[in-house]
Design a protein that fits this description.
With 320 residues, the chain is an alpha/beta fold. It contains 13 helices and nine strands. Helix 1 crosses helix 5 (134-148), helix 1 (14-28) crosses helix 13 and helix 12 packs across helix 13. The structure holds phosphoric acid mono(formamide)ester.
Length: 320
């Protein structure tokens, strides 16, 4: 049987993405999660996070436990990477121990898909540089689908640091595969260059105009760690008050959207920079629901890669 990896939304077919979303939804709507609790007994999942994480790491670990799998967590600071070992050699050693699946977060773009081409153990991309964060997109789609149904009937607005955000990249790929009603990207030129419009996606500089009548507003933090220091020290990126006034989501701005608009954010939040506390903690906010649904989305990813029945249901049935 062909071995699959979950490396990005870009290289999934529309069918595979829909099937994965369908499985995540099936798990989320299951009245009894214990039906999944023995699905991956005796399987070992290694988590390797070379960048900090709270939600993604916790969520993948929780998903593994919910399925009965064991988790081997490799922390770069306490591993032989500190002694100069390469990622590939670390990976080969863990593969020699018969690890069943690897979850990897790394600062290098596309490193997970490169590894997936070299090795035949399933890999899961937990965020690779500025490239993709596909499990975040899966949980974002699951959240919208559970609370609003078909995304093709909605106005969805994605606001903030589009340029440096792997969350944005994966989400834009998903929109282009699944289709959408109205979809627009919002941000200052420093974080959303004009060239983004060339890919056919609508871009907007006026936040008030963008959020008017929106069904879903997804806010993104400024990825300071990926922006060179001298750029961070200039203009709007250096002035949180100016940034919030132009691109932040305040209650006044949220009032321009549909009354029941969903407010989303992948986290971590920078309160007062891209979103006010009032909005983040409001009844429109699904930020903590996203975290909850992330576990179901990641259970779906593991099942699809490690259980033959689900591999057929998600990957094989969705092959173009
Ligand atoms: N959304 C997200 O990737 O959060 P973490 O960096 O905490 O994993």
């Amino acid at each position: 049987m062909k071995q699959y990896s979950f490396t990005g939304i870009a290289n999934m077919t529309t069918g595979q993405l829909n099937n994965m979303l369908g499985l995540a939804k099936e798990i989320a709507q299951s009245r009894d999660l214990s039906v999944y609790s023995n699905k991956l007994v005796n399987q070992v999942i290694a988590t390797m996070f070379y960048e900090p994480s709270t939600r993604t790491r916790g969520s993948f670990t929780m998903a593994a436990y919910r399925l009965g799998a064991n988790v081997l967590d490799i922390t770069p600071r306490n591993s032989s990477l500190e002694k100069g070992e390469t990622l590939v050699d670390t990976f080969l050693s863990l593969q020699a121990m018969k690890t069943d699946l690897f979850v990897i977060r790394h600062s290098a773009d596309k490193i997970i898909s490169q590894l997936a081409k070299q090795f035949n153990t399933p890999l899961v991309n937990a965020g690779d540089g500025m490239n993709e964060h596909p499990s975040q997109t899966l949980l974002d789609l699951l959240t919208i689908s559970l609370h609003r149904g078909d995304i093709r009937n909605l106005k969805i607005v994605l606001v903030g640091d589009i340029l440096h955000s792997r969350v944005a990249t994966s989400f834009v790929y998903a929109m282009s595969k699944l289709g959408y009603g109205e979809f627009c990207l919002v941000g200052p030129p420093e974080l959303l260059p004009d060239e983004f419009a060339q890919s056919g996606v609508q871009i907007e500089r006026d936040m008030n105009k963008a959020v008017t009548n929106a069904d879903v507003i997804m806010m993104l933090r400024i990825q300071s760690e990926r922006i060179e220091l001298f750029k961070r020290q200039e203009g709007i990126l250096n002035n949180h008050e100016d940034y919030f006034n132009l691109y932040g989501l305040s209650s006044q701005r949220l009032a321009l959207a549909k009354k029941d608009a969903l407010v989303m954010h992948p986290g971590p939040l920078n309160r007062g920079v891209e979103i006010s506390s009032e909005v983040a903690d409001s009844s429109n906010s699904l930020i903590l629901k996203q975290v909850e649904y992330g576990v179901y989305a990641r259970m779906a990813i593991f099942l699809s890669l490690l259980d033959k029945q689900y591999t057929e249901q998600v990957w094989e049935a969705g092959e173009a």
